[in-house]
Amino acid sequence: MILVKKFALVVSLVFSGALALAAVAVAAGGGGLSPGAYTFTDKEAMATFGTLRGGPPGQQGFSVIVDRGLNSFRNKGSEASRTVISSTMVSLTIFDDAGSATFGCFMVNSADFSVSKDLQAANLHTTLTADEVCPGAGAPLTKTGASTPFAVGGGGAALPLPITLDIAWTGLGVTSVGTDHSTSRCLDYSTDFNSTFKTSNANATGTISAINGSFATPFGDVISSDVKANIKGVPQTACLPQ
What we know:
Elements: H1 2-19, E1 36-49, E2 60-74, E3 82-96, E4 101-108, E5 113-115, E6 121-128, E7 137-140, E8 163-171, E9 176-186, E10 189-208, E11 211-232
Antiparallel strand pairs: 1-2, 1-11, 2-3, 2-7, 3-4, 5-6, 6-8, 8-10, 9-10, 10-11
């Protein structure tokens, strides 16, 4: 149980880092948001499932993050291009009690993920395949502020594909609301983001074809982000994160 709590905290921190992804990190030449005004909504759900109670040593657990909205992808290398795609992205990590983990990033059919308007219910029914592997490391583009690494690694060949996920989130009846206004400027390039975030803590249950049995966890969240962005100019190389 201690391992599960620690792993959930790590996933939460990584996910929070993804929310702080700066527009300057994705608007580089070769892909990203060009100058202009944008309004978009993002829906997310995440859960970390520990090992089955009473199971044998070495049994596995998994973590899943699914995001539907504007997702940003970057290939390897500091000079790699960034691309923003309206998509549904699934990040899956399978781990064991020894600390070993394999992970992958996938772009799935948007119909495979549903979220209720009040964030009290969400469902993911999908099968991850090699054809759906993300085109590079990915992270949701939901607000700006500070430049952070792309939070979700591309690939997934190490996972036992195909993998079928059937996950349901049930909210606890309370939704918290937060707002954020952030700006970024470098030379002639600037971004201005106004964001509203709604979050519902949730219980989650589900199955994964790669591991036998059913899982349940209190470590779940369902999140909605409404963002208005205004981008001016094109960032020069000196303004981009290394």
